From TrEMBL:
<protein>
    <submittedName>
        <fullName>CDGSH iron-sulfur domain-containing protein</fullName>
    </submittedName>
</protein>
<dbReference type="InterPro" id="IPR052950">
    <property type="entry name" value="CISD"/>
</dbReference>
<keyword id="KW-0479">Metal-binding</keyword>
<dbReference type="InterPro" id="IPR018967">
    <property type="entry name" value="FeS-contain_CDGSH-typ"/>
</dbReference>
<keyword id="KW-0001">2Fe-2S</keyword>
<dbReference type="Pfam" id="PF09360">
    <property type="entry name" value="zf-CDGSH"/>
</dbReference>
<feature type="domain" description="Iron-binding zinc finger CDGSH type">
    <location>
        <begin position="46"/>
        <end position="78"/>
    </location>
</feature>
<feature type="domain" description="Iron-binding zinc finger CDGSH type">
    <location>
        <begin position="9"/>
        <end position="45"/>
    </location>
</feature>
<keyword id="KW-0408">Iron</keyword>
<keyword id="KW-0411">Iron-sulfur</keyword>
<dbReference type="InterPro" id="IPR042216">
    <property type="entry name" value="MitoNEET_CISD"/>
</dbReference>
């Protein structure tokens, strides 16, 4: 399996409104941590996630978290 690109070795800490978001799994989006369609032609697809209320989140940008789309600290081992 192809490995994703490491977009950054720290999470994107954002305060997001309630809604549906598409987290980039391939690491190639220019709009990290969200999908911009840059995965086309690869085996990756974005991962949808939903927030039911306004929330501060830490979204993984190294793309190797075991709790996607959220940071689990995996970037510290890269
Ligand atoms: S650009 Fe990375 S999953 Fe879409």
């Amino acid at each position: 399996m192809t490995k994703p690109v490491i977009a950054d070795k720290k999470p994107a800490v954002l305060e997001l409104e309630a809604g549906t978001y598409y987290w980039c799994t391939c690491g190639q989006s220019k709009n990290q941590p969200f999908c911009d369609g840059g995965h086309q032609g690869t085996e990756f697809t974005p991962q949808a996630f939903e927030l039911t209320e306004k929330k501060k989140v830490a979204l993984c940008q190294c793309k190797v978290t075991n709790n996607p789309p959220f940071c689990d600290g995996a970037h510290s081992k890269l």
